[in-house]
Write a structure and sequence with these properties.
Radius of gyration: 17 Å
Distance between the termini: 28 Å
Order of helices and strands: EEHHHHEHEHEHEHEHEH
Oligomer: single chain
Number of strands: 8
Helix content: 40-55%
Number of helices: 10
Strand order of the largest sheet: 5-4-1-6-7-8
Largest sheet: 6 strands, parallel
Shape: globular
Amino acid sequence: MASGNGSTRSDHIVWDWNGTLLHDIDVVVEATNVSFAEIGIPPITLERYRELYCVPVPRFYERLIGRLPTDDEWAVMDSTFHRHYFARADSAALAEGAAALLAAWQEAGRTQSVCSLAPHERLLPWVTRLGIHRHFLRVDGNVTDGVVTGKAEQMARHLAALSALPSGLDPERVVVIGDATDDAAAAAHAGAKAVLYTGGSHSRRSLLAAGVPVVDTLDEAVRTAQELFARA
């Protein structure tokens, strides 16, 4: 949990972390290829990764190799990916312009938070290390074990917790900004709107299938969110 500015303004942005605020897609693809090599799968390019990626991750592997990985294959790939990713994740920086956008949104009297499928115990140190924790009312990572099947229920819990704050929160005045179609699905599940950003895990073509606005920069994402608030 991180404290914000106590604003009572109703417009609220929920940010995704990996691939959105954190520009880590190169580390992700590198870690994916290391995990693929463990079971003899050829390396994948960034472009192909973005065309095929989806949640849950085993379905991504099914799209890539034509079948679901066996339990043993999944265990090897999952372990190898996370070991390699977390060894290099500290080299990932915030997306271009992210720090300034977060500060400006808060300074304008609006609120924001983070809802991510990254492990919660790793997410908080990340946000703090990068010096942006003070901008958020709440920071929630994943606390469940096993294969992550999507963000929908976590998003609903995240918005429920924000709604319980003294200032309250109306999901209809919330825009989720993320880099995956699952972010749009989670937003819809929780009664919020979404804007999707092309700088992370999905191609533009893949994101357009979600039926929500798709943008190429975080600055454009925030401007689009403001347009959605203005129409609400």
